[in-house]
Design brief:
0% strand, globular, single chain, mainly alpha
């Protein structure tokens, strides 16, 4: 399994993107520019069961990638990166279980839990690439990965701030801003999976 787990990280973003695209096709009234991703699986959303399953697969892949990385990679600082990734996957499962409330309705207990989990996930999506860049700074051949990690952390921070402003102010482009934020994080997860293949072989064998 130590040679397989990085492919969980590379597969997870593909599953996520496919789920969002399929969700937009299945729900004719859904708008990728305006609507948030969570609205695909919120309470009462059409076709939510199949999307719930697909998002569940994404989060399971992220959990497996994260916690297997903790097991198979040697350095403590690098295991911390994968611990944070595993936590992101677990929080994603919580967000699915506690669906987002429809816009304009009063907050339910599940809706509040969804917001809390989403907020923690957003924070970790910025912190984790930074920790990854720092943890690999003394490893030969990781210069490109370090630069990408720091760069994407900045992109996630900026686009995440714009996403919060967009949804908070009722801008019609909130969904688009959110997709930039999530897209940057998914790109980093995919790249981390690719580099972990090389790093793992170099470290453990």
């Amino acid at each position: 399994m130590k040679k397989i787990f990085p492919y969980f990280g590379m597969s997870a973003p593909i599953v996520y993107l496919a789920t969002v695209l399929i969700g937009g096709i299945l729900n004719s009234g859904y708008n990728h520019i305006y609507n948030s991703v969570s609205e695909l699986t919120m309470t009462g959303a059409p076709n939510s069961i199949i999307l719930f399953i697909m998002f569940g697969i994404y989060n399971l892949l992220l959990v497996l990638f994260g916690f297997m990385g903790m097991i198979y990679l040697a350095r403590l600082s690098i295991r911390t990166v994968f611990l944070l990734l595993g936590i992101c996957g677990l929080l994603g499962i919580v967000m699915l279980a506690a669906g987002q409330d429809p816009r304009g309705q009063e907050f339910s207990a599940g809706g509040v839990l969804h917001i809390i989990a989403a907020g923690i996930t957003a924070l970790l999506s910025i912190i984790t690439p930074i920790v990854a860049g720092v943890s690999k700074r003394n490893i030969t051949g990781m210069g490109v990965y370090i630069k990408i990690s720091f760069m994407l952390a900045v992109f996630i921070f900026v686009s995440g701030g714009l996403t919060s402003v967009a949804f908070g102010s009722g801008w019609p482009s909130g969904g688009l801003m959110e997709r930039f934020t999530i897209g940057f994080f998914l790109l980093w997860v995919f790249i981390t999976g690719y580099f972990s293949t090389r790093f793992q072989l170099r470290t453990l064998e």
